[in-house]
């Protein structure tokens, strides 16, 4: 049986060669990278964003630009080292001009995320933004609880997965903290909810 690291390496190789994606041409035209994910391969906490931005696509690393700095600030607020968590996105390639991911793009890339979750087996999944929130809530059988992210952010949902139970916490995307610094107390409060579960 493949180890977690071997499984994640296989996922990476498949994504690097994922020319079936309509976003593959965007990748090759702009000489950028897919953003597969990084962090602890045995993380208790997995953060799932929506899709890479420009800086992420240039480096192949998730949350390495301005949103990443906000995420790092939020992790520091609860003394959770980034090296202890795993960070990824639903969509692994950057949509043109940072537009929202389309439903068909989410559907195309989601199986890779599902396999990452199965390999890492996190106990807590934190969604960052409404697209990852909606996908994960549907995937975990929580569709009946879907509402506006401003209504359910910071709430804890329990779900069953193949390896046991998992807690899901929807949160605003860290980009909110860039455009609206007055939202930082809300973002920090939601991170404190996460800390209470660790």
UniProtKB/TrEMBL annotation:
GO MF, one example: 4 iron, 4 sulfur cluster binding
Catalytic activity: Hydrolyzes single-stranded DNA or mismatched double-stranded DNA and polynucleotides, releasing free uracil
Keyword Plastid: no
SUPFAM superfamilies cross-referenced by the UniProt entry: Uracil-DNA glycosylase-like (SSF52141)
GO biological process: DNA repair
Top EC class for this record: hydrolase
Coiled-coil residue windows: none
Domain Uracil-DNA glycosylase-like, first and last residues per copy: 36-164
Keyword RNA-binding found: no
EC numbers for this chain: 3.2.2.27
InterPro entries: UDG_Type-4/5, Ura-DNA_glyco_family4, Uracil-DNA_glycosylase-like, Uracil-DNA_glycosylase-like_sf
Domain of life: Bacteria
SMART domains attached to this UniProt entry: UDG, UreE_C
Keywords: 4Fe-4S, DNA damage, DNA repair, Hydrolase, Iron, Iron-sulfur, Metal-binding
Family: Belongs to the uracil-DNA glycosylase (UDG) superfamily. Type 4 (UDGa) family.
Protein name: Type-4 uracil-DNA glycosylase
């Amino acid at each position: 049986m493949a180890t977690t690291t071997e499984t994640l390496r296989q996922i990476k190789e498949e994504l690097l060669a994922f020319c079936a994606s309509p976003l593959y041409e965007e990748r090759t035209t702009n000489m950028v990278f897919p953003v597969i994910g990084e962090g602890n391969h045995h993380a208790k906490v997995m953060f799932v964003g929506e899709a890479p931005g420009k800086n992420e696509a240039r480096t192949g690393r998730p949350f390495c630009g301005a949103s990443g700095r906000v995420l790092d600030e939020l992790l520091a607020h609860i003394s959770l080292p980034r090296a202890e968590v795993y960070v990824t996105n639903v969509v692994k390639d950057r949509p043109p001009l940072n537009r929202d991911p389309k439903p068909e793009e989410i559907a195309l890339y989601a199986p890779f995320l599902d396999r990452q979750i199965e390999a890492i087996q996190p106990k807590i999944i934190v969604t960052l933004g409404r697209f990852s929130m909606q996908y994960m809530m549907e995937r975990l059988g929580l569709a009946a609880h879907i509402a506006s992210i401003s209504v359910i952010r910071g709430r804890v949902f329990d779900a069953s997965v193949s390896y046991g139970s998992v807690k899901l916490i929807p949160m605003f995307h860290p980009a909110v903290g860039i455009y609206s610094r007055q939202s930082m107390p809300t973002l920090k409060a939601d991170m404190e909810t996460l800390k209470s579960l660790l």
